[in-house]
Amino acid sequence: MLNYVKQLKKSDRGEYEISDLNNLYLDKNNISFSILKRGYVWLDSGNPSSLTDAANYIYAVEKRQGVKIGCPEEAAYNRKLITKEQLELIVREMPNSDYRDYLMKVFDED
């Protein structure tokens, strides 16, 4: 991968573009992909303004839907990569926070 990254040149926006890296992988037949289904979103965060937009989007979705975006513990538990006991251990070792409270709800709901 590092060899591909070294081939990248900054775009007209003055940034390295992930799509340029993806195209290098495509050219080398060294990539697979999936079409994102409904409910997935790509958020650009290449500059402070777009990072703020992404953060505001995530905040709004989490607040309205009552679910966390990008919660690896929940994803691992839902995919049965970790057991309920392992999730409980992970949660109990976390410091008190909104994130811990959220995971406790995930644990308690099951």
Radius of gyration: 19 Å
Elements, N to C (H/E) = HHHHHH
Helices, by number, come to 6
Largest sheet: none
Number of domains as seen in the coordinates: 3
Q: Report mean pLDDT, rounded to a whole number.
A: 90
Spans of at least 5 consecutive residues whose pLDDT stays below 50 are none
Helix fraction, binned, reads 55-70%
Distance between the termini: 40 Å
Shape: extended
Range of strand content: under 5%
Helix/strand/pairing category: mainly alpha
The count of strands amounts to 0
Written account of the structure:
By secondary structure, the chain is mainly alpha-helical. The chain has 3 domains: 33 residues, no CATH class; 28 residues, no CATH class; 41 residues. It is built from 6 helices and no strands. Helix 5 packs antiparallel against helix 6. The longest helix is centred in the middle third of the chain and has 18 residues. It starts with a helix and ends with a helix. 5% of the residues are buried. The mean pLDDT is 90.
